[in-house]
Each structure stands twice: as structure tokens, then as C-alpha cells.
Structure to design on (636 residues):
């Protein structure tokens, strides 16, 4: 059966009837002629029913008018209202004709007490419809309000003239699905409940739910017509049972969650780009998304709990706490309705093809701890509403097309530990809130953003900072030594630097390297200062960085000799000193770090697998500075 939605649309798979071009046999032509004759008789029969119905209505109207006229003729001279007898008793037999759609105790919606001054009531009269198998048509007849003394009609006014506030009787034929105002229709409330709830989720946008091309409409129709699991959660009103169960909080939660997940599917899978719809470890035959409505375990849009759908995790109360659809071919935009998942803690949609801007409703996810949208095509500024997400610990929108200023709202969560804005077009300067509110930051990656300006010394207040990456950020000026003297912003006490990674390559930084870099930041494992304008000699204290694994100083203007103290860096794996102005000889202590497999100098086995410096080639001029290096892997 086709089910008509409250939005005035039929949801049914698109089907086209095939037309045949084969000629009819003589027997078939006779059969067709007989069918046509039957149809003619049925049409005449239907017309007869309609005529009978009209005659019944006309009889009712005439009876009412005649009753009022008779009452007027017997009215007393003093103008007191008299009752018109029991003429209306015959109409009661018609009104009580057993309408299966009439409630047990109908109530006047205008005024339940039915005082004489109330507006006229409307009484339902059941008449046969054109087609006997269908439900009867409900005809609304407006009658005067009942008398307070007799319970019948009050047919005359107080002046005895027979005129009253109630005008002549009117008759209105309503569609079969419409009932008179005096009766609450006893029909399925499931569709009404669902539509009302989804309207609140979709910001009361009736147009979106009604637009058949919108993902909201597709999700609504799937919920209404295809979701057998959800249909078990809502009951129906029937003629035999005038009761209905109010949806419980758990049922409403299921409706909200299933609608938003279904909407997310239709929004991001418009061209069937999803790679996986089900858990491959559960069912290897459903790793593609062609038949999304199959009842497969863990499949999106399956007839199981949404908590079992692929990439979805719920808590013990059945609330969605995690959505992880990473690297799954998602396209288009993130629907704003996702902000209604109030219990969501982790939203991970990295490595997809999501585009457009982030919805402002993202700020409604006040319980969110992880927002990972890395490696998509999201554009526009960061919504200021993100400032409401005070529990946020991980904010990763790297490798997108976002732009605009680094607003203070990005740095309102004191719980924020991981911040990746790399590969976007955010502009500086860095807001003060970064060093006062998000002081627990551990990882910061701003690579590839045109931040500009100098490196703020306030970075020293990030006492937990372990990784700072600001490559290709248009930075200028010197490298301030203060950033390595980490200080508690509350007590102003110095604390040990936790910095392990410092990457500032591809900027326009200049001057010599501060001694604090080598004397304080002794926990460094990666130091990348390549492609800048640093000058001066490399300090002997560089040997204090005993945890160092990568030293990248290429493409600068360092000069002088290479310090032998670098030979104490026994964990060093990569050292690139090329394209500078170094001279002299590579210290044997450094050559001893080269692994035996690549050590052309015959030194002991070490950890260094790549060593590059300004070595002299045979075709270089004698006046060019160079480093004699027998153990280098590359000479520039």
C-alpha cells in the first residue's frame, strides 16, 4: 500500500508500467469489452450513490430549516425563547449512525460547557462515499448551540424574532481524511509524532522536509516507510482501541539518532561514494554500499539498533558517543542536524571529501572531546560557536581550505591538548587566549598558515607543550630564547621544558640560535630549522641535546666549523647541514655515528643513517667554503 505522509507526498519506489505493442486476439478483445461494460455499470452505480448522498444531505438541511420555522410560529408574544419540541430527535438517529471514526466522548472544541452564547457547534454526519469499500465521507453540518434547559437547539433569539447569533445552516463536505472539529480523529499518530519531532530537529524547516530532492526528505521518508525497527517503537490509534502510548524518552532518542545518522548518510553519500557501510570483520559480503537497505548486521540503514551501525558507538544508555567514518568516501557537507546529538563525544570524519563550511550548530556539541576533520575540503572560517565546546581535547582540521583569523573562540577550552590547523589559510596573529586559556596544549601544528609576524614569547606559558610546528608560516625575526624557559603562568615559577619537536622550516627567521635552545630544551628529539636565514656558528652546546634524533639545519647561512660535540648525540639518525657556509673537516666523532653499512670512513657502527654537509666536489672552485667529509652521504 502507498502510505500518504503528512507532508503531502507519497513515498514509493519509482516504477514505470511497461506498455505492450502486441495485437489483441478476438477472445482478448471480447474480454476487454466486458471489462469496459463493467466499468460503465460501476460508474453509474457510483453516481447513484452520490445522488443518494446529496438527497440525504438536502433532507437534513430541509428538516433543520423546517424545525426552525415551526419553532418561530409558536413563539410567545413576550419574546421568551420556547423549545421547538422533539423534531431534532429524528436527526439524533442520523448523528448516532455509528461512525467508526467518532470518539467515545466527543467534545465541543469551541466550548465544552456549550453555553447559549457560544459559537455554533459542528456535528458529523456520515454519508456513503462513491466507492463502497472505502471509509465513509464525513459531512460537517453547523447547528445552533444546545439549550441550557432542554439540551436541544435554541431556535429563537431573546427578542422572539427568530433571529439569533447563529445564521442559517451551512453544509461543508470535507475530504475523507478530514473530520469535523467536534471529533478528534482516531487514526495513526505515528506519522504526526515523527514529523513533529523531525521538524524540531531540522530547525522547523518544513520546506526542507517537504523538498523531495533534499537529504532531509529522503531521511524522513526512510524513517517513516522503511525503518521497521523504529516502527515497533510507536503504536497506532484504532477504532477499536481509543488509546495510544506516548513515545518514551528512549524511543524519542532512537528517532532522533536514527534520523540524524540517516540524514548524514544521504547527505554524504549522494553519488554512492561511501566505501564501507558495514564492519568488514562482521560480514565480508557487505563491504560496499550498493544495497544500503539490506538487513545486514552493522550496516548503515539496517533494521537493527543504530548503536550497531558501522562506525557508531553508544554508551550503556544507548546514546551515541562516537562517530568514526574516517577514509570512507564521504562527500558534500556535514548536516547541521548533527548538533542535536547532545551526548556525542568523538566525531572523526578525517580523510574524506567533505566540503563547504562547518555548520554553526557544531557548537551545540558541548560534550564533544574530539573533533577530527583532517584531510577534507572544508572551507570558510572557524565558527565562533566552537567556543561553547569547553570539553574539547582534540581539534584537528588540518589539510583543509579553511581561512579567516585565528579567533579567540578556538582557544576557550582549558582541556584542549591537541591542536592541528595545518594546511589551511588562517591568518595571525596568534590570540592571547592561546597562552592564557589553553595552557595545557601538548601538540600544536600551524604549518602552512600565513600567520606572519614574529614568534610570540608567550609560548613559554605552554608548560605541557611537547610539539610545536610552525613551518611555512611567514614568520620573521629571531628565535626567542624565552620560549624555551617554560614558566607556570599562575605561580611564575620556572618548570622543565617538555618540548620534543620544534619545526620552524620554510620561514624567514634570522640571527643566531639562542643558547637556551641547547641548554634548556634538552628533551628535543626533532629540531628542524631548515630553509631560513639563520647565521653565525653552531654552538658547542649543541652536544647537550642528547635525545636528538633529527637535526635539520640545511639552507641557512651558518658558518664556521662543525662542533665535535655533535658526536655525543648517539641517538642521531638524520643530520642535514648542507647549503650553508660551514668549513673545515667533519669531526671523526661525528663520522663514528654513521652506521657501518654506509660508513665509508670505516668508523664504528652507529645510529646515523643520513649525513649531509657542504662537501667539496671535484668541479668546485678552490675559494668556495667546504667541509672535508669522508663519511657523508650527500655533499652540496
Amino acid at each position: 500500500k502507498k502510505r500518504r505522509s503528512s507532508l503531502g507526498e507519497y513515498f514509493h519506489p519509482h516504477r514505470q508500467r511497461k506498455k505492450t505493442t502486441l495485437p489483441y486476439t478476438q477472445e482478448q478483445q471480447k474480454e476487454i469489452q466486458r471489462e469496459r461494460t463493467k466499468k460503465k455499470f460501476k460508474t453509474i452505480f457510483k453516481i447513484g450513490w452520490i445522488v443518494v448522498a446529496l438527497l440525504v444531505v438536502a433532507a437534513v438541511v430541509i428538516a433543520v430549516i423546517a424545525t426552525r420555522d415551526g419553532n418561530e410560529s409558536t413563539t410567545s408574544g413576550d419574546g421568551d425563547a420556547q423549545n421547538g419540541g422533539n423534531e431534532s430527535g429524528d436527526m439524533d438517529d442520523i448523528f448516532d449512525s455509528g461512525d467508526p471514526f467518532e470518539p467515545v466522548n466527543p467534545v465541543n472544541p469551541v466550548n465544552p460547557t456549550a453555553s447559549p452564547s457560544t459559537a455554533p457547534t459542528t456535528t458529523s454526519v456520515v454519508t456513503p462515499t462513491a466507492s463502497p469499500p472505502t471509509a465513509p465521507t464525513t459531512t460537517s453540518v453547523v447547528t445552533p448551540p444546545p439549550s441550557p434547559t432542554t439540551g436541544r437547539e435554541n431556535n429563537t433569539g431573546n427578542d422572539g424574532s427568530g433571529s439569533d447569533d447563529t445564521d442559517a445552516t451551512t453544509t461543508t463536505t470535507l475530504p475523507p481524511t478530514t473530520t469535523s472539529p467536534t471529533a478528534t480523529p482516531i487514526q495513526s499518530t505515528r506519522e504526526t509524532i515523527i514529523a513533529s519531532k523531525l521538524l524540531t530537529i531540522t530547525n522547523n524547516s518544513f520546506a526542507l522536509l517537504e523538498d523531495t530532492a533534499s537529504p532531509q526528505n529522503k531521511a524522513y521518508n526512510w524513517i517513516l516507510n522503511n525503518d521497521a525497527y523504529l516502527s515497533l517503537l510507536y503504536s497506532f490509534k484504532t477504532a477499536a482501541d481509543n488509546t495510544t502510548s506516548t513515545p518514551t524518552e528512549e524511543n524519542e532518542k532512537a528517532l532522533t539518532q536514527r534520523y540524524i545518522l540517516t540524514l548524514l548518510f544521504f547527505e554524504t553519500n549522494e553519488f554512492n561514494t561511501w566505501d564501507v557501510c558495514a564492519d568488514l570483520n562482521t560480514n565480508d559480503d557487505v563491504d560496499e554500499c550498493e544495497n544500503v537497505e539490506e538487513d545486514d548486521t552493522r550496516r548503515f540503514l539496517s533494521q537493527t539498533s543504530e548503536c550497531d551501525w558501522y562506525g557508531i558507538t553508544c554508551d550503556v544508555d544507548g546514546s551515541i558517543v562516537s562517530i568514526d567514518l574516517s577514509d570512507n568516501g564521504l562527500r558534500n557537507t556535514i548536516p547541521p542536524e548533527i548538533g542535536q546529538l547532545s551526548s556525542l563525544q568523538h566525531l572523526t570524519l578525517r580523510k574524506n571529501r567533505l566540503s563547504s563550511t562547518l555548520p554553526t550548530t557544531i557548537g551545540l556539541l558541548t560534550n564533544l572531546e574530539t573533533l577530527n576533520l583532517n584531510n577534507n575540503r572544508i572551507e570558510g572560517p572557524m565558527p565562533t560557536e566552537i567556543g561553547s565546546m569547553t570539553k574539547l581535547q582534540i581539534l584537528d582540521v588540518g589539510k583543509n581550505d579553511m581561512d579567516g583569523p585565528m579567533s579567540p573562540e578556538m582557544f576557550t577550552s582549558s582541556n584542549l591538548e591537541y591542536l592541528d590547523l595545518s594546511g589551511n589559510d588562517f591568518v595571525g596573529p596568534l590570540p592571547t587566549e592561546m597562552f592564557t586559556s589553553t595552557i595545557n596544549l601538548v601538540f600544536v601544528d600551524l604549518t602552512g598558515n600565513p600567520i606572519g609576524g614574529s614568534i610570540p614569547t608567550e609560548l613559554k606559558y605552554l608548560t605541557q607543550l611537547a610539539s610545536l610546528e610552525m613551518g611555512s608560516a611567514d614568520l620573521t625575526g629571531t628565535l626567542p630564547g624565552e620560549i624555551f624557559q617554560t614558566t607556570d603562568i599562575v605561580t611564575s615559577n620556572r618548570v622543565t621544558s617538555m618540548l620534543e619537536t620544534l619545526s620552524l622550516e620554510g620561514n624567514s627567521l634570522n640571527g643566531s640560535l639562542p643558547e637556551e635552545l641547547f641548554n634548556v630544551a634538552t628533551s628535543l628529539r626533532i629540531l628542524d630549522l631548515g630553509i631560513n636565514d639563520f647565521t653565525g656558528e653552531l654552538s658547542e652546546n649543541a652536544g647537550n641535546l642528547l635525545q636528538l634524533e633529527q637535526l635539520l639545519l640545511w639552507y641557512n647561512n651558518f658558518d664556521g666549523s662543525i662542533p665535535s660535540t655533535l658526536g655525543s648525540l648517539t641517538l642521531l639518525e638524520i643530520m642535514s647541514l648542507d647549503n650553508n657556509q660551514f668549513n673545515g673537516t667533519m669531526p671523526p666523532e661525528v663520522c663514528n655515528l654513521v652506521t657501518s653499512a654506509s660508513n665509508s670512513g670505516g668508523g664504528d657502527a652507529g645510529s646515523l643513517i643520513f649525513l649531509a654537509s657542504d662537501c667539496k666536489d671535484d668541479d668546485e672552485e678552490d675559494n668556495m667554503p667546504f667541509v672535508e667529509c669522508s663519511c657523508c652521504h650527500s655533499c652540496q
Observations:
- Residues 479 and 513 are 7 Å apart (CA to CA).
- The mean pLDDT is 76.
